[in-house]
Specification:
Mean pLDDT: 91
Helix content: 25-40%
Oligomer: single chain
Strand content: 25-35%
């Protein structure tokens, strides 16, 4: 159980699980390796390279946990296609829809690790946000809570507005949070929680309750710590997701914000 009285408190409470990500028998050019290191570097994630054993597959990423065998593997090409060689404009413009989101296993399993991101690395959290939204979309029910910091981001980004219309049309109970600097385009399809101060203008979160199914629960929680810089984590651990949901519902759905 994770008890916290703020989104930042949940990030501080994350029990960072030491993980290592290795690129096996890389045949790709050196800049690709540097992109892998830049994208996934974190205090609790060691990114390495290994080669020489012909039994190992080429251009493969393998993720290990603390004193654990391989947690997940993914072809390097899949990580390139989904994250390394992708511009966030694909999501902003709607070029890549929720149906097309494909998250490699090694990325999904970097859960319960705190990442500090800025610049290009921020795309890691953008992609995971879409991954959680896709889970909600495919579930077709349940509740999704999303913090945008500024609600105008929804309408400024055609792809985001389209995604949230898709979610509402699919039957997901959608709640959005942020500064009220927009004209609400959703009528009654989406519940809006506007907050001009407090933690909401600094908080980035996407949390799905799984519609009662633990295996469908997912959460990303991040907080802006500087200009375009964030600390955050994602989790699929049902008990942690439940704790985040409980905090959101007590504080912002049933209440007016933190005391």
């Amino acid at each position: 159980m994770v008890r916290a009285d703020s989104f930042a408190g949940f990030i501080e409470a994350v029990d960072d699980r030491e993980k290592s990500l290795s690129v096996l028998n890389r045949e790709e050019v050196d800049p690709i390796q540097r992109m892998v290191e830049s994208m996934f570097d974190a205090d609790s994630v060691e990114v390495t390279e290994a080669s020489g054993d012909p039994a190992w597959p080429a251009n493969m990423l393998i993720l290990h946990g603390e004193q654990q065998p391989a947690i997940a593997t993914s072809p390097l090409q899949d990580v390139e296609r989904s994250l390394l060689m992708v511009n966030s404009d694909l999501y902003i413009t709607g070029t890549r829809s929720l149906d097309e989101i494909d998250t490699p296993d090694v990325v999904v399993n970097l859960d319960d690790v705190t990442f500090t991101v800025a610049g290009k690395q921020k795309f890691l959290l953008i992609h995971i946000s879409r991954h959680v939204e896709k889970i909600a979309y495919e579930t077709g029910s349940g509740v999704l809570h999303t913090g945008f910091q500024e609600l105008s981001r929804i309408t400024d980004e055609r792809g985001t507005e389209r995604a949230y219309r898709q979610l509402a049309d699919q039957g997901v109970d959608v709640h959005v949070y942020g500064r009220e600097d927009w004209t609400d385009p959703f009528d009654r399809d989406v519940t809006v929680h506007a907050h001009e101060d407090g933690e909401i203008p600094k908080a980035w979160f996407v949390v799905h309750d799984g519609a009662g199914e633990d295996e469908r629960k997912a959460a990303l929680v991040a907080v802006e710590t500087g200009p375009n810089e964030y600390d955050g984590f994602w989790t699929f651990e049902a008990s942690v997701v439940d704790d985040v949901l409980d905090y959101i519902e007590r504080t912002y759905v049933d209440g007016d914000g933190p005391l």
